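Our platform keeps sequence and structure together, in a single record for each protein. Such a record has a labelled line for the sequence and another for the backbone structure tokens. This encoding replaces a full spatial description with a residue-level series of whole-number codes. Below, we set out a record of this kind in full and without editing:
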Amino acid sequence: MASTNDIKNGICIEYNNNLYFVTEFQHVKPGKGPAFVRTKLKNVVTGKVIDNTFPSGHKITTARVEKRSHQFLYKDGSGYHFMDSSTYEQIMLQERQIDYPKYLMDGIEVEISIHTETGEILLCELPQNIESRVTYTEPGVKGDTATNATKIAKIETGAEVSVPLFINENDKIKVDIKQGKYVERVK
């Protein structure tokens, strides 16, 4: 058992007979009334995000979750295949178990969360940023740089990202996958 003081991003809790990951939290102490914790909880099974408020000091049940490093191998008709980096065992996941599957690239290292009591695979998390090569983009128009103009670029994974006009095909860029935004050009 833990209390709301132990809530932090990434913790897995049991709530309403389901497992949830805390994606955001905020401790609030209003001028009047008792303190509380405002949270965003992501359901492990459905992926649905709900807002919930716990009174300060409320008891919560945490789930024991172990994170293991895996490497993405390939995708086929049955699912996404990963290899454990330490034991070389291969596992297969469905798309609903993966955060942002459209950014998966061959060989990328991911963290897979496993419920230690049941052995159930809960979630596959990609790194915050990925580096990918631009496979297609329209050429930028010369002289159109007075504003923060952007254009759409397709990257190796097939995802589309809004990039500045100076980005060309075959440039390597860094992408923030949680926001789906261009971060910087990689040398």
In short: The longest strand covers residues 65-76. Residues 65 and 119 are 9 Å apart (CA to CA). The chain has three domains: 2-62, 65-125, 130-186. The chain has a mean pLDDT of 90.
